[in-house]
TrEMBL record:
InterPro entries: VWF_A, vWFA_dom_sf. SUPFAM superfamilies: vWA-like. Residues 352-545 form the VWFA domain. PROSITE patterns: VWFA. Signal peptide: none annotated. This is Substrate-binding domain-containing protein.
């Protein structure tokens, strides 16, 4: 009887234990710099939670925030500037802890419903300037406070200053640093818009020349010796998180990095806790309470991160001149972030482009929202500003089009496609010389086909080959010319998958044939962008240029 009773009790006790099943499983995707502390804390919490009859099987895995952001955006059939597609092995977790709320902001711009509101941070790490200590002393460190305006002036004027950065489209630390540098460029311009633009462009180009695809690659560029040759050959400065500098110096490198808390402080890493699967919100809420404890703060401190309130935990190796606690940083508005990333893409993506500009009579119409200058004037100004972002590695050509512009041809070549290093002045002069044809119509379809063939004939496998056409009207050719169906058929016949050419159509004003333009770019690959208010053509032009590596593929 005793044996039977004991066996029965064992069976009852064994099989009455809660079984998590799918309802108790919780997946958490976190960046590599946070995952170890989060995994340890989640494991401890899950064990304690059993006493409260909370059954949770937690899987914390390392995930690049850019990959998860790309996967979340793809669910809404959207793409984030410069991010591209997610890694094929990327899985969207129940809980996502990206390194920065900038990711949530960018996703909400793509689709306001893509991520929930009201997220809480679980850790922090400010974005700093990292400099080899021997170089930092020449800037006055640690006695002198170094600001971003001082740095931007130095970068713009001294080519010996080597600036490094990880691609800010995919790296939150670098995006924060880039935002601070861009704001400093405006301040360094002293209220002069042209000077500010010139300073910002020079800084962006300097950053672009020193960019790295990954943080590990960037860190390897810092000098490995304190002699003059090694210092001059390595990186001078780069934006890094406080944690990255702490971990770098912990490896006892030949040259330590100075952690410079420059003003104004850029948006820092704040590690928001984001519930992507509402069905797991109850368990997620209980886990989140555990992440607001001294135990978790100490785990963060051991790996160089601060607590959610900016205060360090036990084991935190405080850098020289570091504040005891840091305040939450203010996020810039979404338009500022998107505009800066578009400029970055315009500068860094190598390109071979033919720009074709409408000079039909309607381009003489006034634009009330732009001080009553003509559509032609705002379009040419947008082209000039865009061209200032292109470095000498670009190849560019300039055409105009209307009807019977060059004998029987509806288009005219002003500058053939060629490297800007040798024909930048020629392109600028061509833009300055453009005048509308008062009685000219809009032979759009014939021009698109001719431009496409011109880009394809000199196709360069090392660049993005694209045709960009700016027009303010629908196709209107009194001499006949191609119909929409004939144009699409000819483009498909001409297209070569081994030599892709992206067609980017920009509509100016509210009288363009947007539906027809989209049929063309959907069929052949590219994108259609429309500025109903011609005064906004500059923004649309920049958006089109920056997304030329991410526009649609042929259908």
């Amino acid at each position: 009887m005793l044996v039977v009773l004991a066996g029965s009790w064992y069976a009852f006790d064994k099989f009455s234990e809660p079984s998590c099943g799918s309802a108790g499983k919780l997946s958490i995707g976190a960046p590599a710099d946070l995952a170890p502390a989060l995994k340890a804390q989640a494991g401890e919490w899950a064990e304690r939670a059993k006493a409260d009859d909370i059954c949770a099987e937690i899987d914390v895995f390392e995930a690049d925030p850019a990959d998860i952001a790309a996967a979340v955006a793809a669910k809404s059939e959207k793409a984030l500037t410069g991010v591209g597609q997610a890694n094929g092995r990327t899985r969207i977790p129940d809980i996502w802890v990206p390194d920065s709320s900038l990711w949530l902001q960018r996703l909400k711009v793509a689709n306001p419903q893509s991520v929930p509101a009201g997220t809480r941070s679980i850790a922090r790490s400010p974005v700093l300037l990292a400099m080899p200590e021997p170089i930092a002393t020449t800037f006055g460190w640690p006695q002198t406070k170094i600001g971003y305006v001082d740095l931007i002036k130095k970068v713009s004027a001294d080519q010996k200053v080597k600036v490094g950065i990880v691609d800010p489209s995919r790296d939150s630390t670098s995006l924060g640093g880039l935002l601070a540098l861009a704001a400093a460029a405006q301040e360094a311009g002293g209220g002069n818009a042209a000077q500010a633009t010139q300073t910002a462009t020079a800084a962006l180009r300097a950053l672009a020349s020193g960019r790295s695809p990954l943080k590990a690659d960037l860190l390897r560029k810092f000098p490995r010796g304190s002699d003059a040759t090694a210092l001059s050959g390595g990186l001078t400065v780069a934006p890094l998180s406080e944690q990255a500098i702490i971990q770098y110096n912990a490896q006892q490198p030949p040259v330590r990095l100075a952690a410079i808390y420059a003003d104004p402080a850029p948006p820092g890493l704040d590690y928001p806790f984001v519930v992507l699967n509402a069905d797991r919100s109850a368990v997620a809420t209980e886990l989140l309470k555990s992440l607001d404890t001294q135990s978790f703060r100490d785990k963060l401190g051991a790996i160089g991160l601060r607590g959610a309130d900016g205060a360090p935990g036990k084991g935190f190796q405080i850098p020289a001149n570091a504040p005891g606690a840091i305040a939450a940083s203010q996020l810039p508005d979404a338009a500022t972030v998107e505009g800066l990333l578009q400029k970055w893409q315009a500068i860094t993506l190598p390109a071979r482009m033919l720009a074709v500009i409408d000079v039909s009579g309607s381009m003489l119409e006034k634009v009330p929202t732009a001080g009553n200058v003509t559509r032609m004037q705002v379009t040419l100004e947008a082209a000039r500003k865009g061209m200032s972002l292109f470095d000498d590695s670009w190849a560019l050509g300039v055409w105009t089009f209307s009807t019977q512009l060059d004998g029987a041809k509806d288009y005219r070549q002003l500058v053939p496609i060629g490297p800007l290093v040798s024909q930048r002045t020629q392109c600028l002069q061509a833009l300055q010389s453009i005048q509308p044809k008062p009685n000219g119509d809009t032979a759009l379809y014939d021009t698109i086909l001719a431009g496409y063939k011109a880009v394809q004939s000199g196709w360069d496998g090392g660049r993005i080959n694209s045709l960009i056409v700016m027009t303010d009207g629908e196709n209107d050719d009194p001499a006949g010319g191609l119909s929409l169906e004939q144009l699409i058929a000819e483009l498909r016949k001409t297209a070569d998958p081994a030599r892709p050419v992206q067609v980017i159509l920009i509509g100016i004003g509210n009288k363009v044939g947007e539906a027809q333009m989209r049929q063309i770019t959907d069929a052949i690959g590219g994108g259609t962008f429309v500025a109903p208010d011609p005064a906004k053509i500059g923004d649309i032009f920049l958006q089109a240029i920056s997304l030329r590596g991410q526009v649609t593929q042929p259908k």
